[in-house]
């Protein structure tokens, strides 16, 4: 009787660990083990198939001597910065406007959120035609009579990356709006009323009270959109296929083509490690500050 | 005996009927479009008439890159398919890894080496081993032209690139887009490859695209190749970004554009509309003193497997692929020409006949060359540098000198 009881209580203690163990094992193998493996490959001379020799930093030197990689890195910063800034800004503005007790709010909210339901492949393909000068916006406006109007960014290697930003922002700002709207609904009305009694105008209330109170929503938006920005592989592939030339190459498309299409597995692995380092450089300080705050509080 | 047992017995009785086949071979390939599947069925039927089963493993997408990925994981897990479609260097590179079956005995008995153009052997042999059976041959350097536009403008089939560019300028003045194409690097690469051999001869092409000779890469001739590419850019409309090759072919068919540089897979688009070669459209090689034949082949390699029934099926499949009758049937549907040079092409269309004859001349004249853009010259890590530079040059404002500099540095970096 006693032994059975201690067994069942021991089991109860072990149960959570037993249940979590398989998924933990799967994550360790499929994520962290392969990160490690990619790191190993990046120090070898692998081309067509993996070989396990030691080539030092050769692949990293080769990577940084490749002009396409420089384009990819520059594009990642241009794209991520503009994408984050515009999606957050437009999302916040739309949320504030929708929060003014307007009619048909539910309908409008669905309209703005709906692009998020599309896959990036669909978004990319649709915008490819919308922004093609011979088919889309430019043609329509020219035919309406404004014949000198040009909008041919998608054909211009210097401007093409901004078309990726446009398509990405179109898709994701509704998502940012939804989160901000939820945040706005969570703000206590009495705070705003108190400010109004004190004589504060609406812009001041938003700037000084409401937007600072949206900080948790802002953090979720930025973290989630950063992920989308870094993994926006499919959007580029569908919209520009990394072209024209290789003007809209991103690190993710570079990594894919080096590893799987160009016999440069080592260079591909090196680029993957560089991407991991970049993400870690942003995420680790963030996690550190968040965890430290929790410990203090 | 229970009902369950009875049905179990009935089920097992069915198995011998299927297993009567001598063996089953799984074939991994990336042909998924209708004409490709129809062409494959020619091989499949012949194989089945010998009593073997064909197990289809089609992995489409990314011009075969997805199928390559599937193969890699299959090989890593020790379960390779019986046969695999090879493009470019894939066959020889897998052979170097020691996983491809040597078909030399079959090749000796069947006289494969004599039946194939010698230039092809680079991609179907590895050392002394014969590693793949080539089924077809496409030519990359074709020009497809709208006959009505050419006739109305009084343009004859151009004999040099200067003629072609002059004709294009004339058409442009008349408001017709001279050249239909997209901005994908491989579409630009088709023109670049053609210019390399057409302007300075097959020997120059060999030095640049195969030997990666530093002196040839960094030469005045190379600058001139880029200059000519820039002139061709002037013949393309500004909406070419994101255009699929088949859409570009459609522009030529509809009379919105005069010509397209494309491999002979474009021919199917014309034929599907009921158009006839030389009556409705022209097909001619990119202009050169010695017409070159830049080939692209599909071949099937067999992997080393333990199962004897699969080994037998591999032999049967290789013999089927190299059977002249099968090559004829397959290529009539696929739009290419047989890899074998001893197959009669009397039943083929005029473009295929022209290609077949020009191939025979090219073999003699030494102007039979592997098409770099499709992976049949330099290895992918180098060929992709050519593709990058040509594409960036084509869509932007880079000078020819800068392009050559970028090319030389890029090739050195990939070595």
Describe the structure.
- The complex is a heterodimer of chains A (about 300) and B (about 425).
- Chain A has one domain: MetI-like (MetI-like fold, Orthogonal Bundle).
- Chain A has about 300 residues and is mostly helical.
- Chain A is flat, with a radius of gyration of 25 Å.
- The two termini of chain A are about 45 Å apart.
- In chain A, helix 3 (about 65-100) runs antiparallel to helix 10 (about 215-230) and helix 4 (about 105-115) packs antiparallel against helix 7.
- Chain A has 13 helices and no strands.
- Chain A has helices at about 1-40, 60-65, 65-100, 105-115, 120-130, 135-145, 160-185, 190-195, 200-215, 215-230, 235-240, 250-260, 265-295.
- The longest helix of chain A is centred in the N-terminal third of the chain and has 40 residues, at about 1-40.
- Chain B has about 425 residues and is α/β, with parallel strands linked by helices.
- Chain B has two domains: about 20-140 and about 295-355, D-Maltodextrin-Binding Protein, domain 2, CATH 3.40.190; about 140-295 and about 360-415, Periplasmic binding protein-like II (D-Maltodextrin-Binding Protein, domain 2, 3-Layer(aba) Sandwich).
- Helix content of chain B is about 55%, strand content about 15%.
- Chain B is built from 19 helices and 13 strands.
- In chain B, strands 1, 2, 3, 6, 11, 12 and 13 form a seven-stranded mixed beta sheet that branches. In chain B, strands 8-9-7-10 form a four-stranded mixed beta sheet.
- In chain B, a hairpin with a 2-residue loop joins strand 4 and strand 5 (about 130).
- In chain B, helix 10 (about 185-210) crosses helix 18 and helix 12 (about 220-235) packs across helix 18.
- The termini of chain B are far apart.
- In chain B, about 50% of the residues are buried.
- The chains are: A mainly alpha (about 300), B alpha/beta (about 425).
- The interface of A and B includes residues 66, 128, 244, 245 and 264 of A.
- Chain A: It comes from Sinorhizobium kostiense.
- Chain A: InterPro entries: ABC_transporter_permease, MetI-like, MetI-like_sf.
- Chain A: It holds the Pfam family BPD_transp_1.
């Amino acid at each position: 009787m006693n032994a059975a009881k201690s067994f069942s209580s021991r089991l109860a203690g072990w149960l959570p660990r037993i249940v979590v163990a398989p998924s933990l094992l799967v994550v360790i193998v499929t994520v962290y083990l392969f990160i490690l493996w990619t790191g190993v490959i990046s120090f070898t001379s692998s081309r067509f198939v993996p070989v396990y020799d030691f080539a030092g930093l050769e692949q990293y030197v080769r990577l940084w001597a490749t002009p396409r990689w420089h384009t990819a890195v520059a594009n990642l910063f241009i794209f991520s910065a503009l994408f984050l800034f515009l999606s957050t800004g437009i999302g916040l503005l739309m949320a504030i406007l929708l929060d003014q007790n307007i009619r048909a709010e539910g309908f409008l909210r669905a309209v703005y959120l709906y692009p998020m339901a599309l896959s990036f492949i669909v978004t990319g393909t649709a915008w490819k035609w919308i922004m093609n000068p011979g088919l889309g916006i430019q043609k329509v406006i020219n035919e309406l009579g404004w014949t000198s109007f040009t909008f041919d960014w998608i054909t211009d290697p210097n401007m093409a990356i901004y078309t990726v930003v446009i398509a990405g922002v179109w898709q994701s700002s509704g998502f940012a709006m939804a989160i901000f709207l939820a945040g706005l609904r969570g703000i206590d009305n009495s705070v705003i009323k108190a400010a109004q009694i004190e004589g504060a105008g609406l812009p001041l209330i938003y700037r000084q009270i409401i937007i600072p109170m949206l900080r948790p929503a802002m953090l979720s938006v930025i973290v989630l959109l950063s992920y989308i920005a870094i993994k926006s592989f499919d959007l580029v592939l569908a919209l520009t296929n990394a072209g024209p030339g290789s003007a809209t190459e991103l690190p993710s498309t570079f990594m894919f083509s080096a590893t799987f299409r160009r016999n440069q597995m080592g260079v591909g692995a090196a680029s993957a490690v560089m991407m991991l380092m970049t993400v870690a450089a942003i995420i680790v300080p963030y996690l550190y500050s968040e965890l430290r705050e929790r410990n203090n509080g | 005996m229970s009902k369950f047992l009875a049905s179990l017995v009935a089920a097992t009785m069915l198995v011998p009927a299927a297993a009567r086949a001598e063996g089953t071979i799984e074939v991994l390939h990336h042909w998924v479009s209708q004409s490709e599947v129809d062409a494959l069925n020619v091989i499949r039927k012949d194989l089945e008439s010998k009593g073997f089963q064909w197990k289809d493993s089609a992995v489409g997408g990314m011009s075969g890159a997805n199928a390559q990925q599937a193969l890699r994981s299959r090989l890593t897990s020790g379960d390779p398919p019986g046969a695999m479609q090879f493009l470019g260097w894939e066959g020889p590179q897998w052979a170097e890894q020691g996983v491809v079956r040597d078909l030399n005995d079959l090749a000796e008995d069947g006289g494969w080496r004599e039946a194939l153009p010698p230039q092809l052997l680079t991609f179907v042999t590895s050392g002394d081993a014969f590693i793949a059976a080539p089924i077809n041959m496409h030519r990359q350097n074709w020009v497809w032209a709208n006959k009505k536009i050419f006739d109305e403008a009084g343009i004859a089939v151009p004999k040099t690139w200067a003629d072609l560019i002059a004709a294009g300028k004339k058409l442009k003045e008349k408001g017709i887009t001279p050249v239909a194409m997209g901005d994908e690097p491989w579409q630009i690469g088709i023109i670049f490859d053609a210019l390399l051999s057409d302007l300075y001869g097959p020997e120059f092409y060999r030095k640049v695209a195969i030997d990666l000779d530093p002196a040839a890469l960094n030469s005045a001739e190379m600058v001139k190749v880029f200059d000519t590419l820039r002139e061709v850019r002037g013949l393309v409309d500004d909406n070419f970004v994101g255009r699929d090759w088949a859409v570009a072919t459609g522009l030529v068919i509809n009379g919105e554009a005069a010509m397209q540089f494309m491999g002979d897979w474009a021919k199917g688009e014309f034929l599907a509309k009921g158009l006839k070669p030389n009556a409705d459209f022209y097909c001619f090689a990119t202009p050169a003193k010695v017409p070159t034949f830049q080939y692209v082949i599909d071949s099937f390699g067999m992997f080393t497997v333990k199962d004897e029934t699969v080994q037998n099926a591999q032999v049967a499949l290789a013999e089927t692929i190299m059977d002249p009758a099968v090559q004829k049937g397959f290529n009539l549907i696929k739009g290419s020409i047989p890899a074998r040079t001893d197959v009669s092409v009397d039943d083929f269309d005029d473009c295929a006949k022209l290609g077949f004859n020009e191939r025979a001349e090219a073999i003699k004249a030494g102007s039979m060359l592997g098409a770099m853009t499709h992976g049949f010259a330099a290895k992918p890590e180098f060929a992709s540098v050519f593709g990058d530079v040509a594409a960036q040059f084509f869509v932007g404002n880079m000078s020819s000198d800068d392009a050559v500099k970028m090319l030389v540095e890029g090739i050195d970096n990939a070595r």
